[in-house]
Write a structure and sequence with these properties.
17% helix; glycosidase; 7-stranded antiparallel sheet; binds 2-acetamido-2-deoxy-beta-D-glucopyranose; alpha+beta; Jelly Rolls; 31% strand; apoplast
């Protein structure tokens, strides 16, 4: 039995070591699907695997599919490992996001990870965005090129949301931080939200503004989800409580990032940030108040800044929000 023990000890050591290196986010409890989530739409196109820990979301001619958290959360750390559909995926949209659009039609909040499919041979693009209190006239999108093929393996996508900041992570490395500023007012998400994951037909806007449509010859498109973490303050929807008692948690919700995580974020953004609303002078003559202008990023993303650099072109993204995944679905059916 000795040969069993050694790998086990070695594995424990690796585990411990990776905790030290990656900060705190890896030690949150991982839930079975049914402990945290319910199916949302798509019937049979949502497939729960036998282990209870993984879900496949299918998109075919009939419908996409999606799931939603059982609880509403005010702040916390939320995460899933996701493997995206491969090959030709133009027009396919996979989203992992928080929203309260079903409760607040006019002044909802939202925090998004969106994966925009692409024509064969081109990479998936990843987009993050937030809305607060119905601020849908101000898109706060950022886009990134990925440094891996997200359809080849599972990668972890996480959102940290506190009273004062939002951090997006890929494989536990922060890629974006939004710090709440006083002038943002209600634009910083502040009401309890549920978690969603969906796959749907975004032909009208996802890939080059709708130039390439979903081709159902390659269906079903399958996005795989596992490693569900919902480490937040669950709130009672009828109470609308607005405080999060962090002390209840045996593993505290992080309050921000470490200097070494920040250094990683900065070097990653230097290479992989491809669009940020903060440098888009076509949309915003003056960057919204929360923008922290980084000269390196400004220089690299100057195609979006005709004012300062005089050679802009319209970016091809479109504003979109996820408050009605079912409508998005039926609109495309
Ligand atoms: C949010 O929106 C509602 C309705 O539009 C408004 O009454 C309220 O003052 C806003 N809250 C904040 C914090 O801006």
């Amino acid at each position: 039995m000795v040969f069993f023990r050694i790998p086990f000890l070695f594995a424990s050591f690796l585990c411990f070591f990776s905790l030290l290196v990656s900060g705190s986010s890896r030690n949150f409890p991982i839930l079975d699907f049914e402990e945290g989530y319910n199916p949302l739409f798509g019937d049979d196109n949502l497939v729960l695997l036998k282990d209870g820990k993984s879900v496949h979301l299918h998109l075919d001619e009939r419908t996409g599919s999606g799931f939603v958290s059982q609880d509403l959360y005010l702040h916390g750390f939320f995460s899933a490992s996701i493997k995206l559909p491969s090959d030709y995926t133009a027009g396919v949209v996979v989203a992992f996001y928080m929203s309260n659009g079903d409760m607040f039609a006019k002044n909802h909040d939202e925090i998004d990870f969106e994966f925009l499919g692409n024509i064969r041979g081109k990479d998936w693009r990843i987009q993050t965005n937030i809305y607060g209190n119905g601020s849908t006239s101000i898109g706060r999108e950022e886009r990134y090129g990925l440094w891996f093929d997200p359809s080849e393996d599972f990668h972890e996508y996480s959102i940290l949301w506190t009273e004062s900041l939002i951090i997006f992570y890929v494989d536990n490395v922060p890629i974006r931080e939004v710090k709440r500023t006083a002038t943002m007012g209600g634009d910083f998400p502040s009401k309890p939200m549920t978690l969603y994951a969906t796959i749907w037909d975004g032909s009208t806007w996802a890939t080059n503004g709708g130039k390439y449509k979903v081709n159902y010859k390659y269906a079903p498109y399958i996005a795989e989800f596992s490693n569900f973490i919902l480490h937040g303050c669950a709130v009672d929807p009828t109470e609308q409580s607005s405080s999060c008692d962090h002390s209840q948690k045996s593993i505290p919700i992080p309050s921000g990032m470490t200097p070494s995580q920040r250094a990683k974020m900065e070097s990653l953004r230097k290479k992989h940030l491809t669009y940020s609303y903060c440098y888009d002078r076509i949309r915003y003559k003056t960057p919204p108040s929360e923008c922290v202008i980084n000269p390196d990023e400004a220089e690299r993303l100057r195609i979006f800044d005709p004012v300062t650099f005089g050679k802009g072109r319209r970016h091809r993204g479109k504003i979109h929000h996820h408050s009605h995944p079912r409508q998005a679905e039926s609109a495309s059916a």
